[in-house]
Amino acid sequence: MSQSLSMSVANLGLMRAFDEIAKAAGVTYKEVVRSEAAKILEAASKNTTAAQVKLIKMSWKMPDAVWLLVQKQIAASIKRRKAARGLAKKSWKQVAEDMGLTIAVPSYVEAATTKNGDYPGDGKATEESKGSDFAIVLRNSRTYSPSIFDAIRRAMNGREKFFRENLKQGVFKSIETIAAKYPGLYTK
């Protein structure tokens, strides 16, 4: 069974931004959070480090007799590792899909798989509501990749910065400008 590590990433600035967006756009806090979740998860996938192909193909040196015996194993290992490249990024796509959201990822991420096939349970999400409070709880089992945690933090901080820039530029003065910057709010 896969191990997972959960962590709480509470970004008060982002939560305040979501409140302001909801008020300005005339939508619920929940609608803002769900809309912004796709952007955050897509950025988290981009921020997650993938294996470098050149390192996967690193040079192997050994005596000729041994080399002949293990050459097939090395080729199979390289093939498996190249096929698995992108699994950490793919886990964010799985989180988004679990929420019914779609995010863009590169083709190698779409194709990433393990020797035993795909594990769609690597990324999960649940929505929690209590009164007017709403939260999305993310679970990512690809914890061997240290960039997973940094990726979601950077993605959330990036969306908060996006909000602050839009606030400075007066985006929240009309529904049209809000819809242009936050198109996911008005699609149902």
Summarize the structure.
The chain has 188 residues and is mainly alpha-helical. It has eight helices and two strands; from the N terminus they run ααααααββαα.
> End-to-end span in angstroms?
37 Å
Biggest sheet record: 2 strands, antiparallel
Global Rg: 21 Å
Number of strands: 2
Which segments are poorly predicted (pLDDT under 50) over 5 or more consecutive residues?
1-7
Number of helices: 8
Q: How many distinct domains?
A: 1
Structure notes:
With 188 residues, the chain is mostly helical. The protein has one domain (12-50, 86-186). Helices cover 55% and strands 9% of the residues. It contains 8 helices and 2 strands; from the N terminus they run ααααααββαα. The chain has helices at residues 12-25, 29-47, 53-56, 64-84, 87-98, 107-111, 147-168, 175-181, and strands at 123-130, 133-140. It has a two-stranded antiparallel sheet with strand order 1-2. The chain is elongated, with a radius of gyration of 21 Å. It starts with 11 loop residues before the first helix and ends in a 7-residue tail after the last helix.
Secondary structure topology:
Elements: H1 12-25, H2 29-47, H3 53-56, H4 64-84, H5 87-98, H6 107-111, E1 123-130, E2 133-140, H7 147-168, H8 175-181
Antiparallel strand pairs: 1-2
Helix pairs in contact: 1-2, 1-7, 2-5, 2-7
List keywords for this structure.
single chain, 188 residues, elongated, 2 strands, mainly alpha, disordered N terminus, 8 helices, two-stranded antiparallel sheet
